[in-house]
């Protein structure tokens, strides 16, 4: 079972396969893994102890950063992610990033961004679309049409407590839609990264 895997010089953490979205471009629809491992489908959600044991086998100083990403939405397991961040901070000085769909407030039915203060150094939020209607079509979240607004509110809250906040979109969008995403990101003073779809 793959809990930790590498992409370039980053160490990635795979804590869950659960996700409230079903993005049209999701790599999980066509592949079993990304990076240098065979399979990111988990036999079971790893316990805190299993994750820490996996970390203990690594030399964290050999990596540029630790990234919570994996084959699901890491913030579904908010408590575990926070505990693992605490362990990483106590045992290394490597920066920590979370890659998230930005729907954690809906997942947990409360505002959670403030809990990330001091725990993570960066967060990359999948913006996915320039407006709520397109977001619903592309990300297909189980929370429905209100999801996009919650994502935007989450990003605003993250700006107050996390040193680096980035939006990302995948290049499945049209040029005009990517430009609209860029305007939205600029208005929020958040940088936007356009990612290539994994084929
Ligand atoms: S949020 Fe990420 S893991 Fe979830 S469906 Fe979309 S691309 Fe896949």
From TrEMBL:
The UniProt record lists the keyword Magnesium: no
Keywords: 4Fe-4S, Iron, Iron-sulfur, Metal-binding, S-adenosyl-L-methionine
InterPro entries the UniProt entry points to: Aldolase_TIM, rSAM, rSAM_sf, rSAM_TatD-assoc, rSAM_TatD-assoc_bac
Domain Radical SAM core per the UniProt entry, residue ranges: 5-199
Any one GO molecular-function label of the UniProt entry: metal ion binding
Membrane among keywords: no
PANTHER family tied to this protein: 7-CARBOXY-7-DEAZAGUANINE SYNTHASE (PTHR42836)
Protein's name according to its UniProt entry: TIGR04100 family radical SAM protein
Native species: Zhenhengia yiwuensis
